[in-house]
Amino acid sequence: MRTELQERWIKASIIGTIWAASEIVLGSFLHNLRIPFSGNFLTAIGIILLISISFTWKEKGLFWRAGLICAIMKTMSPSAVIFGPMIAIFAESVLLELSVRVSGRTFAGYIIGAMLAMSWNLFQKIANYIIFYGYDIVEVYTNLLKLAQKQLNIQTDIVWLPIIILLIIYSLFGLLAGVTGIRVGKKMLEQPDSDLKEMKSPTLLSPAKVSDQKFDYSVSWLFINITLIVGSFFLLAYTNWLVWSLTITAIIIIWSIRYKRAMRQLSKPKFWIFFVSITLITAFVFTRAAEGENALIKGLLTGIQMNFRAVLIIVGFSALGTELYNPKIRSFFIRTSFKHLPLALELSAESLPSVISGIPDFKTFIKNPVSVFYQVVSMADKRLSEIKNKPVSVPKVYIICGDVGEGKTTFIKKMIDVFRKNGIPAGGIFSEREMSGTETTGYNIVDIDTSDTEIFLRTGEQGDTNKIGKYTINPSGLKKGIEILTSPTITEKKIVIIDEIGMLELNNGGWSQCLDSLVRHPGISLIITVREKFVSRIVQRWKIDDYRIFNVSENDCQVTAEHIISQVKK
User: Fold this and answer.
1) 61 — alpha (psi -120 to 50), left (phi > 0) or beta?
2) Backbone angles phi, psi at 310, to 5 degrees
3) Which tens digit of pLDDT belongs to each residue from 2-46?
């Protein structure tokens, strides 16, 4: 769906897309080659992009918005484990944003931010180990260092030494990335884009697509998964090994049946080698550190518990990530103050293929990294110009949604009055409720253009006629509605209204064939009423790209109608 998008979000979308492209393509390449510090290399790319582009794009809040978009687009990565990288990407962008906010767009602000962003990788790794394996991993680490200290006869406490050394290394990585970003940014100011020599774009492998197109998403399963994860942590902390091992094994089996992608990580030999190694190291450390005949058993159980925790988090959060693809959850954001986020993400998804195709190969990068980054940042400026010069897309379909009896038809009828007062030709049909006392006995089809009425649905009818729920479909009413929606004059209308689209249409009945034709007809804006629970399925069924949702409980019909009129007149 498209509406007006703030320029700040457009720029964030462009930067986030470039960053995400490097994460998806180069990330897969580096990890497959087992290159050391590949995560730091990817972080450096993000830091350089953010710093260099800030020399020309100076909006506040650009860093964290770009990081948020990149983090979400990371879900397109073929990796089954995405939550860790997503958190890291967003945290790095926030740290850089905070540093620049405090110190300004100065050398110190950029360098401190870059060093903090890079160092986050180390702190997150430590946190991950503690979360995955519990605080026992800290005890294992401490005992192992004390053992080494004793064996080497070192008098000084060396527990913090490895962490300090790693922190220095990470900070130096950040320093280098920050300096490179500043150099690229200054080059952007000094050298016009036209002076840049064309570089050959290499052929790159596209990222693997997630084959979850036919997945049966469920909001209920999302909350079930959250409950299972929280409950499993409780069992690990407060029950014996037999209870938590059997329970978590059963949960993993359930997840493996529903979420095939979540099990990819567990199918890798590297995971099981690490599993066994952690268990054996833990058993060894606990045996040497503790006394008694049960020390070995305790060590083994502690190691196994740590690994169960790791498996739980890996598979559990992959399951959560799958359910978060639910179209219902995506459409939720449209009705919130975060409406710019899904729009920016849509723009990013549109831009991603062209951005990926423009990423230079690794050989070119090694030869002249500054020029490569300059080319990539220039790509961002070109993409911004393309978006600004592109005509604004007016939504083609407007979805009026709500629950049964919430007033969708009343909402539509009031909108029709507004259209007529403003001289906007509207046609189509709406459903008039037929009542017997307080009981609904059926619905009639009303021609919006002529106000002609025909019986459509009735309760209590007998025979072999088609039915939907408790209602029998009147063939003459169905025929009348189809005639209205397929008449030659309907295409002369600026707005066509169909009240309503639901299960009958999803099963290829009712007005489905009419909608097939109208949704693709140029020059027509469609207004359809839909029960809220069917919105995502209808959008997917008819492949509706340009749409806007209005919930009758959250929107005013006068304001909604005036908004649609303003869009139709563009």
Assistant:
1) left
2) -65, -45
3) 334 467 777 887 788 778 777 766 665 555 445 666 778 888 888
Place of tokens 């009945």: 509
Extents of the domains making up the chain: 7-210+339-388, 219-323, 397-568
Average pLDDT over every residue of 308-319: 75
Edge-to-edge strand ranges of the sheet holding 397-402: 467-468, 471-473, 453-459, 439-447, 426-436, 495-501, 525-531, 397-402, 547-551
Question: How far, in Å, CA of 558 to CA of 567, rounded?
Answer: 14
Place of tokens 């209205």: 484
- Give bridge partners of residue 397 from the DSSP assignment: 526, 547
Q: Cα(133)–Cα(313) distance, rounded to whole angstroms?
A: 10
Residue 268 has phi, psi (to 5 degrees) of: -85, 135
How many angstroms from the chain centroid is the CA of residue 131?
24
Q: Which of 530, 533, 517, 560 is nearest to 395 (CA)?
A: 560
Residue 69 buriedness (CB in 10 A; 0-12 / 13-18 / 19+): buried
Cα 396–Cα 542–Cα 526 angle in degrees, nearest 5: 30
Q: Mean of the per-residue pLDDT values for the chain?
A: 76
Q: Residue 62: pLDDT band by 50, 70, 90 thresholds?
A: confident
Identity of the residue numbered 478: L
What superfamily in CATH does domain 397-568 come from? Answer: P-loop containing nucleotide triphosphate hydrolases (3.40.50.300)
pLDDT, one tens digit per residue, over 270-299 is: 667 766 776 677 666 666 655 555 667 777
Provide the whole-model pTM.
0.49
Name the β-bridge partners of 198. none
Beta strands 426-436 and 547-551, pairing class? unpaired
Tokens at residue 503, please?
């299960």
**Tally of helices (H runs) and strands (E runs) in the chain:** 22, 9
Rounded to 5 degrees, φ, ψ at 360 are -65, 160
CB atoms within 10 A of CB 334: 20
Measure the N-to-C terminal CA separation of the chain; round to a whole number of Å.
Answer: 17
Helix 38-53, helix 161-190: angle, nearest 10: 40
What is the DSSP secondary structure assignment for residue 26, as one 8-state letter? I
CB 110 within 8 A of CB 63: no
The Cα 26–Cα 317 span in angstroms is 24
Show Cβ contacts of residue 319 under 8 Å, excluding neighbours closer than 6 positions.
225, 255, 258, 259, 262
What CA–CA distance (Å, rounded) separates 470 from 553? 26
Segment (H or E) for 427: strand 426-436
Could you give the angle at the alpha carbon of 344 between the alpha carbons of 341 and 347, nearest 5°? 155
Does pLDDT of 195 surpass 50? no
CA 52 distance to own-chain centroid: 26
Rounded distance between C-alpha atoms, residue 159 and residue 148, angstroms:
10
> Given this model, what pLDDT does residue 58 score?
83
CA distance 459 to 504: 16
Cα separation, 177 vs 22, in Å, equals 15
